[in-house]
Design goal:
Distance between the termini: 56 Å
Radius of gyration: 26 Å
Number of strands: 38
Oligomer: single chain
Length: 559
């Protein structure tokens, strides 16, 4: 964009429109600048305005010394009292943020990442407050050190200070009434509305924050939706949702998460300080009134209920109910695998991706029966068998890390994890031929990098390439993450092939094996769907669900 100075005629017209500046020479505009669309605005310092902008009734638009536009701000996520672990910039992906979190204790790695980000910021940081093309700004009190991208709309905001709004025509950014933002970055499709208060916060693609929600030192990625409550030191990965008042997300990492009303987390033992944190792993959720005392690890697709103070670690027990019962935390392994809620959740997330299809920044993998999930199911099955062997088959209440499992729940959990494993095998062989994997990556441990599923070996290799100097810039790093995401099916097949051959004691997988194994595992999927159907009918029998609602849902259950 080429900017020019105002003409004397334009200055006179702006004055007539109620505008003011201590130095009109510091205001530069696009060639097609139209003074009729600028009214009642106070300019201070250097400001640039793009084409086709409407700016009315703004208390002040200004640039001050040492403006950062929010970029380069280091947030303390998870550990509220930490020294900072995520450096913000407008192109930040959920995956890079997750990598920074994973290796935050490595000072040399952190230094290299921050150097790369700082160099990336320097390539595009404007020298002054900039308003892009086709921007509307009306009824705002203060815009200080802001970089507003094309096609943004800011209506009625109270204050935006040190902010970058990255937007484009198919995914504009909207900021609404009474909003306050200090040190905030927003990505395409983001909306911040209705008196939200954001401080040192990153709002990613198609994320919404509104209805008085308050955020500090938090990040939100890819379709997260926050209303009414508050967050502090929270890492909210894709599809993290909190709608209700009195809900506090603090010191936690979340993804594909839904907070029940009145959900609270506590990161403070009132001793050393607010230093504790934990993770609600992919698909985990909390019931209304839940309270979890960090540290804790709540496994994949689990449901936490009540006041949980025993610091459970159920990473190896996915799909569990985790229930506070007095001073005991009961764990019901695998129970959430066969519920309507899990069935609906896994089906709705892909349909609710509101990001523009072009130019997506973060990577989101919706595969729920993934190598990561099945790895945890395998570990869960092994763990439950070991507990039963060590503590005895007739034990009524088995002790586990931070909780207890009843006898019948343990036995059923083994069956449910076996069901999930067979469902994965069935799904992996659905359209497969007996082809050898093209990679060995994927046969070991897996990671969930804030929505992207990846073999741990690939992330280790990425780390080594950064440390050795093979990766020296952010674009190359992000391209590498994108490539890992794109290779998911190859990695998944390597995992599945390894699992199937080990499970059935064969060296190689032949076409004849595929047909026999698929027939054996087909019953697992049928059993799962039947369980979902029974769970729906159980809810219908409560009496307040219409028959039409039940039938509409049952139509979605297909073999």
């Amino acid at each position: 964009m080429t900017y020019r100075e105002l003409t004397e005629t334009e200055i006179a017209q702006l004055k007539a429109n109620g505008c003011y500046s201590t130095d009109w020479s510091l205001l530069s505009v696009a060639e097609s600048f139209d003074t009729s669309k600028i009214r009642n605005v106070h300019f201070e310092g250097e400001v640039q305005i793009g084409e086709n902008c409407r700016i009315e009734n703004v208390g002040i638009i200004q640039t001050t010394e040492s403006a950062t536009f929010g970029e380069g701000t280091v947030l303390s996520v998870m550990n509220e009292a930490g020294n900072g672990n995520i450096m913000m910039y407008s192109g930040l992906s959920a995956q890079l943020a997750a990598v920074m979190m994973q290796y935050e204790g490595d000072k040399d790695f952190t230094s290299l990442i921050r150097k790369m980000i700082s160099e990336e910021i320097s390539l595009s940081r404007p020298r002054c407050t900039t308003i892009g093309d086709n921007v509307t700004v009306t009824g705002c009190r203060e815009l200080t050190n802001v970089n507003i991208g094309n096609d943004c709309e800011i209506c009625g905001a109270s204050r935006l200070v040190e902010c970058t709004l990255r937007s484009h025509k198919s995914a504009n950014v909207f900021v609404g009434d009474d909003v306050i933002c200090d040190n905030v970055i927003m990505q395409p499709g983001a909306s911040v509305t209705d008196a939200a208060r954001l401080y040192d916060t990153f709002v990613g693609e198609a994320c919404h924050v509104g209805r008085g929600f308050t955020s500090e030192n938090s990040v939100f990625f890819a379709n997260s939706y926050m209303d009414n409550g508050e967050s502090c030191a929270a890492f909210c990965g894709p599809f993290s949702v909190s709608h209700h008042k009195s809900s506090l997300l603090i010191g936690g990492q979340y993804s594909f998460y839904n907070a029940g009303s009145g959900t609270n987390f506590s990161n403070h033992a009132y001793k050393i300080g607010p230093i504790h944190y934990g993770t609600m792993h992919r698909g985990a959720k909390t019931a209304s009134g839940a309270h979890i005392l960090w540290p804790a690890q709540i496994g994949l697709f689990s449901m936490a209920m009540g006041k949980i103070q025993s610091h459970p670690d159920t990473r190896n027990l996915p799909f569990s109910y985790i229930i506070s019962q007095g001073e005991t935390t009961l764990v019901v392994p695998g129970r959430n695998l066969t519920t309507v809620g899990t069935f609906r959740d896994t089906a709705k997330w892909p349909k609710r991706d509101m990001r523009a299809t072009e130019g997506r920044i973060s990577h989101v993998n919706f595969d729920w029966l993934s190598p990561l999930t099945i790895s945890e199911c395998i570990k869960g099955k092994e763990l439950l068998n070991e507990i039963q062997e060590v503590q005895g088959k007739n034990t009524q209440l088995y002790a586990i890390d931070g909780g207890a499992i009843r006898n019948h729940a343990l036995i059923n959990g083994i069956k449910l994890y076996d069901l999930a494993i067979k469902m994965f095998i069935y799904d992996s062989l659905k359209d497969a031929q007996a082809l050898l994997p093209t990679t060995t990556s994927g046969t070991g441990d897996w990671l969930d990098l804030a929505g992207m599923l990846a073999p741990a070996t690939e992330i280790d290799a990425l780390y080594n390439d950064i440390m050795s100097g093979n990766i020296t810039d952010i674009q190359t790093l992000e391209d590498r993450l994108a490539d890992i995401h794109d290779q998911y099916e190859s990695y998944r097949w390597a995992f599945a092939y390894n699992l199937i051959t080990k499970h059935y004691g064969i060296d190689t997988l032949e076409d004849s094996d595929i047909n026999a194994i698929r027939q054996e595992c087909a019953s697992a999927r049928e059993e799962w769907l039947l369980s979902i159907r029974r769970d729906a009918e159980k809810e219908y029998n409560m009496g307040d669900v219409s028959l039409d609602t039940l039938n509409d849902f049952l139509k979605t259950i297909t073999v």
